[in-house]
Amino acid sequence: MTKEKKILFIIIFNLIIVFSEITFGLISNSFALIADALHNAGDVIAITITYIALKFSTKQKTFKFTFGFLKAEMMAAFVNTIFLFITMFYMIYEAIIRFINPEIIEPIYMIVVGFVAVIANGISAYILSKMQVSSCPNHDHSHHHHEEDANIQSAYLHMLSDALISVGVMIAGIFIYFFKIYYIDSALTIIFSIYILNHSYPLLKKSFCSLMDINITNISQDELENIILNSNDSIVEYHDLHIHKPSSKHNFISFHIVLNNDNIDLKTSEKITNDIRQKLEHIGFNHILIQVDSDKCIKNNINCSL
Question: Range with the lowest mean pLDDT among 27-31, 111-115, 245-249?
Fold first, then answer.
């Protein structure tokens, strides 16, 4: 089954949960279930964004969209995570209100529907976690790591949050049924919401930095300087450096190198840039642009200010 079909299956699966929770929430007059249904409905929207981003990411480059839709993944991750943060803060707000003013809740419906939601959200989260693991690793030799698809990861976090909150609903239902402790529902909602916020922050930061073209690669400045400046004795300096990560699977780098010998022919300069390129590919860069300049372009020289 393709990624798109799996996401579509999760959307349909979760729509069934939403309508079930609304129905049983109205029958039992349980605000908790209706609130959870609205939370799940928000996550269906988030998963739909993930699905749209996946469809866009497969589109071919055009003359207008010369990068294709590389940033669709990070855009979806950012929108989803922002939406998740808003939802979690709302859940905390509602939980505090209910903590101060406990409401009488019908526990049987909470336990049954909560259990069904845990199973459904758990399956959805499991499918998405497997999709993350199967995402293409970044095959470099010195920096071994899997690059998770941020778009899929954001969808996974939504499903994980749903599963945890449904666990909270179920546990709360059991405590209310046996001990009539109504505030347990609010306490567990706050705990799980804080856990999800903490778990989601790194993805929010990563997707924001990617959209802002901030360098979030693992390479250090010293390591990069060592690769460029020590590649050939003719290299005096490098400038106009740009590093960014438009998606989980792409690391872009571009810069100029200044050579101190104006008589270097094209083949020699190609060899110099190819040596640098191979070293950069070795540490995970897969889109490399190197411009060769003569020594008149040394830093701060008006001739090469752009």
Answer: 27-31
Residue 25 has pLDDT above 80, yes or no: no
Q: Between 3.30.70.1350, 3.40.190.10, 3.30.70.2740, 1.10.3880.10, what CATH number should domain 221-304 receive? A: 3.30.70.1350
> What integer is the mean pLDDT of 31-54?
79
Superfamily of domain 3-211: Cation efflux protein transmembrane domain (1.20.1510.10)
* Residues 208-258 pLDDT 10s: 999 999 999 888 999 999 999 999 988 999 999 999 999 888 999 999 999
| Average pLDDT of span 259-275 | 89
DSSP letters along the chain, please? Answer: --HHHHHHHHHHHHHHHHHHHHHHHHHHT-HHHHHHHHHHHHHHHHHHHHHHHHHHHTSPP-SSSTTTTTTHHHHHHHHHHHHHHHHHHHHHHHHHHHHHS-----HHHHHHHHHHHHHHHHHHHHHHHHHHHTSPPB--SSS-B----HHHHHHHHHHHHHHHHHHHHHHHHHHHHHH--TTHHHHHHHHHHHHHHHHHHHHHHHHHHHHTT----S--HHHHHHHHHTS-TTEEEEEEEEEEEEETTEEEEEEEEEES-TT--HHHHHHHHHHHHHHHHHTT--EEEEEEE-GGG-TT-GGG--
